[in-house]
Design a protein that fits this description.
single chain, alpha/beta, seven-stranded mixed sheet, about 40% helix, globular
């Protein structure tokens, strides 16, 4: 009988069994170094090529546009810092105030070295609109970086429109799509983005592996110095098992994308209906266009940290916001960015359902919440 209920899929997801099984041979049997010239390296080398093709197909890219990294944080750092350091004129960068810290702290690092960064404030619903970007962008802008979907409130940004504006001014466009890849349909060529970051553990793959999409024709300095792996763009012996697991998990999710979305949306509606029928007073953050199953709920006059701990005692894992902020009891930078009233902000929790969540899970989460906040 299932005891624990996991409802923090925005922090990390359960590894798919198919991904685990696909990884095993590359850990135990075919453990050769893919960079070596002998026969024992051929199968790992082929596995890397096949994984690259699989990932590219899932996001509408070309295989040579996919570069393996240790995850979203590295991918974000690579784009922002390498883009800045390759610009001798120190032209400006634009991002938003509610990005993941991997972006915000990379921006702080280049600012410290004299590279200007402008920070856009989202709407109260959690969107960076075309109108907002137009106010900031100039012909001296080098790079625009806006996340695809916010990891705390789930709001999905109009990436295609923002990308067009950036290109109109001769700027490159990067999106941190860590929260979105494997959960909503993404085609990089239709979007027009120059860079896209992703992390496997967010779509039921292993931790510690991710990828960066770099559009053909766009130059980006290597982030690490060393060997010639990843077309001399990212040094270090490839983690073949994790890469194969990532590709397997992504393809599994993409093949069942609509089915998973419908399942998660049904659970979400069931949970919200419970709260509404019980007369619970709350505000849902994130506007109308948001990720399925990610609920940022604010209960006025309540303490989000206290709700989290009481839910934990009931065997239910949720979050108060971004997992990277889990030890910080202050109001998150995302909630401050959307200017959420402090009385609501202090009582905010994040519930993120996944494809492995069940109707019974949603029912128990709703009942537990009603009991705690009523």
């Amino acid at each position: 009988m299932k005891q624990h209920i996991y409802a923090d899929n925005a922090a990390t997801t359960q590894l798919d069994k198919t991904a685990f099984e696909a990884m095993t041979p590359w850990l135990i049997e075919e453990y050769g170094n893919a960079s070596q010239p002998y026969a024992f390296a051929r199968k790992p080398k082929k596995a890397l090529a096949e994984a690259r093709c699989t990932i590219a197909e899932c996001i509408g890219a070309l295989p040579e546009e996919i570069f393996f990294t240790s995850g979203g944080t590295e991918s974000d750092n690579w784009v922002i810092k390498s883009s800045a350091f390759s610009d001798s004129e120190k032209r400006g960068m634009i991002t938003s105030t509610f990005e993941h810290y991997a972006v915000l702290r990379s921006c702080a690092a280049i600012e410290h070295l004299g590279y200007p960064v402008a920070y856009m404030c989202p709407t109260k619903e959690g969107y960076i609109t075309s109108e907002i970007l137009w106010k900031y962008i100039t012909d001296k802008t080098r790079l625009v970086s806006v996340m695809y979907a916010n990891n705390e409130i789930g709001s999905i940004q109009p990436i295609c429109e923002l990308c067009e504006i950036a290109h109109t001014h001769g700027a490159l466009f990067h999106t941190d799509a860590v929260q979105a890849v494997g959960h909503i349909k993404i085609n990089v060529h239709e979007l027009g983005v120059d860079f896209l970051s992703a992390s496997a553990h967010k779509f039921n793959g292993p931790k510690g592996i991710g990828f960066l999409y770099i559009r053909n024709g766009v130059e980006l300095l290597p982030y690490e110095d060393g060997g010639a792996q990843e077309s001399a763009h990212r040094a270090g012996t490839e983690n073949v098992a994790a890469i194969v697991g990532m590709a397997t998990a992504l393809k599994t999710n993409c093949d069942l994308l609509e089915q998973n979305q419908q399942h998660i949306l049904n659970l979400e509606r069931h949970l919200v209906t419970q709260l509404n029928e019980a007369g619970v007073v709350y505000k849902r953050n994130g506007g109308d266009s948001k990720l399925p199953g990610l609920l940022s709920l604010s209960f006025p006059g309540k303490d989000g940290e206290a709700i989290l701990h009481r839910m934990d005692l009931m065997g239910i894992s949720i979050s108060t916001g971004s997992a990277c902020d889990s030890v910080n009891t202050e109001i998150s930078h995302v909630l401050r960015a959307i200017r959420l009233d402090e009385d609501y902000a202090k009582g905010t929790i994040r519930i993120s359902l996944g494809k492995n969540s069940t109707e019974a899970d949603a029912e128990k989460i709703g009942c537990a919440l009603i009991r705690i906040v009523s």
